[in-house]
Amino acid sequence: MSKESLWQQVLVMSHEGGSEHAAGRETSRQKELLYITTVFFFHCLYQYTAYVFPRLFENIVGGPNFPGVLVEGFQQESLENQEPHIKKKKLAVSQHGDPVVTIGETSKNATNAVMSFTTAVKCWELLHGNEYLQKDFTRICQIWKADDWHWLQTFQVELLMYEGMFEEGLKKLQQDEKITGNVRFNLQRASCYYMLGNYVQCFDCLVGILTTLVNSTEERQGQSDETEKSTNLLYQPEPQRHLHLLIANKENVIEYCILLILTCMKKKMFSSSPANETLLGNALVFSQYNWPREEETFRFILKAVMKKESFRYKLFFDYIINIDILEEFMYIWKHHSNVALDLLPVGAAEIATKRTMTRGVKQNVSEDFKQAMERQVARCGENIQKLLLDFSLTKIEDFKSGFV
Known about the structure:
Blueprint lengths: L2 H14 L1 H5 L5 H25 L15 E5 L1 E3 L5 H13 L5 E4 L4 H20 L3 H13 L6 H13 L3 H10 L1 H4 L1 H14 L3 H16 L10 H9 L1 E3 L4 E6 L2 H22 L5 H10 L8 H14 L1 E3 L3 H4 L3 H13 L4 E3 L3 H6 L11 H16 L5 H11 L1 H6 L3
Parallel strand pairs: 2-4, 3-5, 6-7
Antiparallel strand pairs: 1-5
């Protein structure tokens, strides 16, 4: 019998005992419901935990080679009419609607792990929805010394995230920092900070993760079809919120961190009018990842530059290597003399007499700009992920200044 069928039977038992609950007395029916739901809860939690912590239990086969961690997924938003979308996002979170849970793998065990988690959540909520059930369930957990089971504490963190209780989730994570592990701890903290709109704290968590992974000895693989599939599942059509069960190998975690950094930038950029140039420039750098998925983000930035008729970003020639972006800025420089582009690094700008670059100014400035663009075109084959890792780990203050 499937978990869904079993859950429906538990619900029937719960509804049949509703009148007895309302009468304020504990009955044999409630006891039966307590024990069945408790056993079902721990059965589901065991199956979920065995999948996300494959080395915790012996003789478990068919799971991933790396642990899984539940993180916040992203909404695939349109860039038009951003203000109503932001309001909708806040409303969805405040109502704590049940999110969708996705996973990058397509195996039967992966699907079962997601079903086990969501069913465990339902059982937990049922066991804590009635004073008699909660009292007896708490007593059982005390007898079993369940507080010592770190995988139960991990589930409680993920339960809080699932229910949209992010501040409570952060407090619980802080209590359990020693047993959750650095990468898992920071991934879930980053998710909570992101959903609370605290993007600077979120970024600090992500930098901590990337620093750990860059210095680790685990071999990274190139992006496989499964990795690409997992990336696509990180994005879901709005307005429904969703969580993603991330298989925490090095490649997946690095990719998730980069995407979350970009998403934080976009959220801030779309909610600021006008967005500051540092934020626009940083978002421009990260929009190169998974191109052309983020081409619409680039068009949003380009529109802001044209509207302001100026753009100053001294890191442009350090980190912009996408040929489409380079061509667009070269076109602006050649054909829109009203737009002032100040993109050369400080040293090069001083050589070019520190003059703002617009069409028709000194020849040395024009020549320096063209040569810089030619050098960037030659860099188009560079590894974009490596470039963004360098940006994330060495330009921390530049990132934070974009959120001021």
